[in-house]
From TrEMBL, chain A:
Its EC number is 4.2.1.7. InterPro entries: SAF, SAF_UxaA/GarD. This is SAF domain containing protein. It is an enzyme of class 4 (lyase). Residues 14-90 form the SAF domain. Keywords: Lyase. The keyword Magnesium does not apply. GO terms for molecular function: altronate dehydratase activity.
Automatic annotation (TrEMBL), chain B:
Belongs to the UxaA family. Keywords: Lyase. This is Altronate dehydratase. GO terms for biological process: D-galacturonate catabolic process. InterPro entries: GD_AH_C, GD_AH_second, UxaA_altronate/galactarate_dh.
Length: 96, 389
């Protein structure tokens, strides 16, 4: 049985949580908000410590939320449990 | 809240006592260094230019050099010029004297007749100034006399969750005590400026804030630069930050939640107290140097990836929320607040720990960067001088 990992959610409205340890594909991940487990999901990718995991599905072109704010938009569709990083999201600001 | 500090003739208080050897131009850098290296109690900065500059670039350089000499941690200054440069050493001398009444001397390499004579005279002047400086003692004063510089560098995903909110907690407390806090790094307002704009004192401050952010963003767009590469940098990306907005939203937490009273230019001394926005570049060493010129006596520097940097005029307290980084670079980083990420401690608890560290460092405790003698400086240039590419 794979070990249970943790990721923290910074705002209830967020679409991503931050991994608190190295996560391997197939790991069970508890999503922690205010020191309580609010969700449990399966990692679909390997995720580095402090990198992001999707807690909701995100359509390509849609905003991605962390801290309850927009941190960019998805450039691919992202499923729950996928790693969220520069391969699938990008900045909206600072460019045309 | 009280600290022990050195009183200056202009009514300000320093938490360090240093004689600054200040080159008005890059051509005087090595002469400056040799004078400083011979006289304990002095410090020096390197000047990246001071000549071949025009327009607002001259104004920025002039303002910053004056600001460094006026910094409360500086007891007195010896200005070293070449003679033919744009930024005239004698002009700096007159202005520092007029604005602070602090000890100030000026020497010029061309006028003295070469390096050896300049060094000889510089060492004599510096030795005498250090001797006078050594006689003054710390006195108890209110912490409201402090201006705190905040900066983050080598950020990662822990910065916005642990180290920056911890610093933000201290920023709020210090401001309530009547002190001043600088929040800078304009690149890292992009995508988070709406949060700052809600906290501005009035329409003018709001407009100034939104203007510096918009001008910078427009400049990126005009130049067709992909800001990714610098923001987030390769290290930021490796540390889990994916976008500029994500970095910005974490970065602005350093300033806490107070009302923003003023927006100042790079190296400018604010008129107001409380939370002040300084328009500085995202490059750490330039940003901190600007805040030192603006009058900060101390800096808290948050990091995710780790950094060794210091400053010749003010102490930098370095803190991280990344446990691995602290363990990896504990000889460079003063404080570990990774317990926040692990859920073992709250932001308030770590904030109180940082506040105590700030007070201790104000009272004379040396930071790790100070003990190593690390003294990075870089004065920002808003224009480069000329060639075709």
């Amino acid at each position: 049985m794979p070990s249970i990992k943790k990721a923290i959610l910074l705002n209830k409205a967020d679409s991503v949580a931050t991994a608190l340890s190295q996560i391997q594909k197939g790991d069970v991940v508890d999503i922690i908000y205010n020191n309580e487990t609010v969700n449990r999901l399966i990692a679909l990718d390997d995720i580095e410590i402090y990198h992001k995991i999707a807690v909701v599905p995100i359509q390509s072109g849609n905003n991605v939320y962390k801290y309850g704010e927009v941190i960019g938009k998805a450039i691919k569709s992202i499923e729950i449990g996928q790693c969220v990083h520069i391969d699938n999201i990008e900045s909206v600001r600072g460019k045309k | 809240m009280k600290i022990k500090a050195y009183k200056r003739p202009d009514g300000k208080y320093g938490i360090r006592n240093k004689v600054l050897i200040l080159p008005s131009v890059g051509c005087a850098n090595e002469t400056t260094r040799l004078i400083s290296e011979q006289v304990q109690g002095t410090t020096y900065i390197t000047n990246p230019k001071g000549c071949g500059q025009i327009g607002s670039s001259v104004e920025l350089m002039h303002r910053t050099l004056i600001g460094l000499a006026l910094n409360p941690n500086v007891y007195g200054t010896i200005i070293v010029g070449l003679g033919c440069e744009t930024i005239q050493a004698y002009d700096l001398y007159e202005e520092v004297k007029k604005r602070s009444n602090k000890p100030v001397e000026v020497i010029s390499i061309q006028r003295e007749g070469g390096t050896l004579k300049t060094i000889q005279k510089g060492i004599k002047l510096a030795r005498k100034m250090v001797e006078e400086m050594s006689k003054i003692e710390r006195e108890e004063v209110d912490i409201s006399n402090i201006t705190l510089a905040t900066n983050c560098g080598g950020s990662d995903a822990t910065s916005g969750i642990a180290a920056n909110p911890t610093l933000g907690y201290c920023s709020d407390i210090l401001i309530k005590e009547g002190a001043t806090v600088f929040l800078g790094e304009t690149t890292e307002f992009i995508g988070a400026e709406h949060i700052l704009a809600r906290r501005t004192k009035n329409e003018k401050v709001r407009n100034n804030l939104l203007t510096i952010v918009k001008n910078l963003e427009n400049e990126f767009i005009r130049l067709g630069i992909d800001v990714r590469g610098a923001n987030p940098s390769p290290g930021n990306i490796k540390g889990g930050l994916s976008t500029l907005e994500e970095k910005s939203l974490g970065s602005i937490m350093k300033g806490g939640t107070s009302i923003i009273n003023e927006v100042v230019r790079y190296g400018e001394i604010p008129k107001e107290k409380g939370l002040i926005i300084m328009d500085t570049p995202g490059y750490d060493i330039e940003s901190v140097t600007g805040m030192v010129a603006g009058g900060a006596q101390i800096c808290v520097f948050t990091t995710g990836r780790g950094t060794p940097i210091g400053n010749p005029i003010i102490p930098l307290i370095k803190i991280t929320g990344n446990k691995q980084t602290y363990e990896n670079m504990s000889d460079n980083i003063d404080l570990d607040v990774s317990d926040i990420i692990e859920g073992k401690k709250g932001i308030k608890e770590c904030g109180e720990m940082l506040l105590q560290e700030i007070i201790d460092v104000c009272n004379g405790k040396l930071t790790k960067a100070e003990i190593y003698g690390f003294s990075e400086t870089c004065i920002y240039r808003n224009q480069e001088t000329w060639c075709s590419w």
